[in-house]
Amino acid sequence: MMDVRNQLARAFNPRAVAVVGDKRAIGYMWLESLRTFQGPVYSVQIDPAEIEGIKALGFPNYLRLQDIPGPVDYVMASVPRQVAPRIVADCAEKGVAAVAFFTSGFAETGEEEGIRLQQEMGDIARRSGLLVVGPNCVGLYNARIGLRNSPEQTVGEGGKVAFISQSGTHCINFTLLAPQEGVPCAKAASIGNAEVLDVSDYLDYFLHDPEVEVIAMYVEGVRDGRRFFSLLREATRRKPVVVWKGGMTEAGARAAFSHTASLATAPEIWRAAMRQAGAIEVDSLEEALDVCKALLLMLPTTGRRMGLVAMTGGQSVVITDAFQREGLEVPLLSPRSYEKLSSFFTVIGGSYRNPLDAGWTVAMGLSMPQVERLLSVLADDENIDVLVFEVGTNFLVRRLRENPQLAEVVAHSLASFRERCPKPLAAVVHPSHVPELGSLARQKILERGIPVFPDFRRAAKAIARAIGYWRFLGGLDG
Q1: Is 0.90 surpassed by the pTM of this model?
Q2: Residues in contact with 16: Cβ distance below 8 Å, sequence separation at least 6, in sequence order
Q3: CB atoms within 10 A of CB 458
Q4: Confidence of residue 88 (pLDDT cuts 50, 70, 90)
């Protein structure tokens, strides 16, 4: 029986990689992506017009995979679909662990020839114990060793998220945006039509991968539902699993089939299974990243009571609505907290119920000692479980123009407070009418490991889903 988990470990951590069929027309995309790979990278190409360009890039080229000296653990193939079965056979003969096919035109077309070729590839692979990633995908990504499927992807240590995707675009977008959100991706798999390896195989691998703390996925359908949900139940008790399901409408299901030949599951059945398994459902790439951020950068809590700090009275109303719509509470503070606040919260027009209206701190030049004092009151209050602080960048534009270092001061102060705060802390930094200044404030806070959300709604949704997962682990209802 094929040892899929160990073979995937070889594929994600290959000793050497070969690219079959890279071309000038696509800018030698695969070879260029693999410049960061820490081991040998070989090309296999028989077209003399392409070989010259490949050699000019500095990659050794061979006419046959079998001619490459030494082992090759992972192959990326970009060849005409009629050639794909031959490449699978060559990989099997070479002793490759896995081959990924960028090539499309298989079962997703619904055409007899495409279905036949995909089946032939799968049959050869299964007989020989070879893993096929895809076809119709962009393959595997491991940031730590520089194994990439896009020249834009970051490399290096530190990622804690794994992403499984039946869309190559979503896979690349997730890996590109995750570092900007403070949650760099450790590994990712674009799985396409999933002829040999299904979602479950990657879920099982990441479940046992010690580098991975959160598993996220974009899935259009699964082949073996019983195995998938069994693994999902096992995984969620050890790591959070964030699931973005495509094809949840009738038209979306048709699109999913033409994309990856995935069969639809009734939305109500899917959602019930997700709830039972303890998976965290999301509806977009942005929401998936937001939830990963809340899970990784906030202290875990099962409490739903929010302590909110907004910049104005109007924002106080809107932030309250956003969090309560997600089933979270915005309670009154304890009498002891109000006594503390009344000793220094004396500016006319300010409010210190909950949310706290901290606009007066901006009037004082964003007095961070006063901000920390406000947050400390919330942190000490027995009615509060989570703290959320709005950074009013539009109010701060003039001061940030005069002193860009103010963004660093805010970030440092929040980070210093977070180190001694026993409760989860998050920030909201709205886009500014001067984009570069808003981005500067956001970046500085995120660099300190504090989750930053672009609006109240997204913050509330992500935090609510993270709390829901922690409640699931604790055996709490809802």
Answers
A1: yes
A2: 39, 40, 41, 42, 68, 70, 71, 72, 73
A3: 19
A4: very high
